Every structure is written in structure tokens, then in C-alpha cells.
Amino acid sequence: MNFPHSPRRIGAAAVHRRIRACSRCKAYPIIPRSPYCVSFRAAASCAALIVCSAAISAAAAGGAGAGWQPQTYRTIRAIYGVRVTHHFGHTDKSCLVADVNLNGGTADRREGEVYVDLRFHPPQNVLAPVNLSGKTIHVWVFAPAGLAGPAKNPNGIRIFVKDSGWRSEYGTWVHVTPGRWVRLTLTPSTTTPPHGYRSPGFDPQKIIALGVSVAAGAHSTAHYRGGLEIDDVSWDGQTRYGFGK
User: Fold this and answer.
1) Which helix (H) or strand (E) holds 226?
2) Which of the residues 18, 130, 232, 233 has the least number of beta carbons within 10 Å of its own beta carbon?
3) What does the domain layout of the chain look like in residue ranges?
4) Is this prediction's pTM over 0.90?
5) pLDDT tens across 33-85, in order?
6) CA-CA distance, 104 to 98, in Å (whole number)?
7) Backbone angles phi, psi at 109, to 5 degrees
8) 172: DSSP letter
9) In CATH, what is the architecture of 63-241?
10) Nearest-CA neighbor of 171 among 208, 131, 209, 137?
């Protein structure tokens, strides 16, 4: 099996090196081109995130992506926007749409991520960090035909989580199945998932972010521009993000 490129891991120090001043409120630095003014405080482990007034206002208004945002790290930019639609969904007509510009032949477009920080956009009755050790996260995704990639090197998709030290666990890659809703799963633990990744020291009992990662197949130059629908993010038998339900 040909699995997609393994995502570049982003530690707190690496993220901190690319922080710039906030162009909207000037109060704190931000990750460039992030839809929310979210940044690492320049202290200790750089693990404490801060949200400026612009982000809080966006969240209060519902926000274009209901608190979800694309990864802006320089080599993980295949997802460049997120929005909620009320015309299509898994269980009703609402879901999150990630705007994808995937290109296996371009270094910064080989993979992309969309995620939510649970500290600032938590589900109801959830307080981060969250203990998800041994608890299976479910995410439903719908991929149009063009996102599947070539048959020999199909594109892949999976769930990932981050702990309070911004350490990661990525689930098993699933080849994109186009034209129908597909359920992805990840059970955070201290064991690396098959064909997955886990940062040294990752703590599944202190989860602060979760998201979906998509990437081109290994050695593929496949190109796709369009949407990726995401819906019904759940754990403990409860839908945590239903995007307008």
C-alpha cells in the first residue's frame, strides 16, 4: 500500500519562530494568515495559546468555520479556508466545508489540515484539556471524486489530535473514497496507530485540539481544488460538533 506523505511535525518552538504581529488588534502576535488571531505566548514552552478580541468577536458571531481553522504551517497549506454550509450534511443539511487546493507536486500543497482548539471553541459541557485516552473519536467526511487521486497512489485522510504540549497523534491513513460519507476514527493512546504517528511524550489525557488531515499519495503529483465536507465529530457516543444542528 502506498500511503501519503507523513505530515511534518510542528513543535511549539517551530511554531513560535514563525509568529508575527497581529495586523488587526496589535495586542498579540499571530500565526500569519490564520483566520483567527491565535498565537503562542513567548514564554516557557510556548504552549499557552491566546485569542485576541477579533477572534472572540468572530466566535461570538458564529464564525465562518464555527471555530475550526486551516493549518498555516509553510508545508501544510493544502487547506486554505473553512466555512459552514446549510445545504448538505451527513445527518441533515449542515456541515463544515474545508476549501482544498491539493497538489502533490508542490511542496506546500502536498498536505493540509483543518482543526479546532478545544480551549477556545469547546463543545457544550467540555473543558479542555480533555481526557480522551481510550475513547474513540469519530468524524464523518465526504470527498468529491476529484479528491481521490490516482488509483496507484490514492490520496489519504485521517484524524489527528494535539495535547497540551502541542504534541501530536495522527491516526491510520485511509485512502479517500469519493462520492459517499465515510467515517474516520482515532482512539488516542500511548501506542502509535498502524501507519500513524505519535510524538514522543504525547499525553492522550490532555487533548486540546483535534482535526482532519488530508494529503496526496506518496510520489503523486495529483491536483484537486474544491471542497471536503466534514460532519458529526463525536466521542463518548455524543456528537460534539454538528455544525448548525
Assistant:
1) strand 223-235
2) 18
3) 63-241
4) no
5) 333 333 333 333 333 333 343 343 334 333 457 799 999 999 999 999 999 99
6) 18
7) -120, 10
8) -
9) Sandwich (2.60)
10) 137
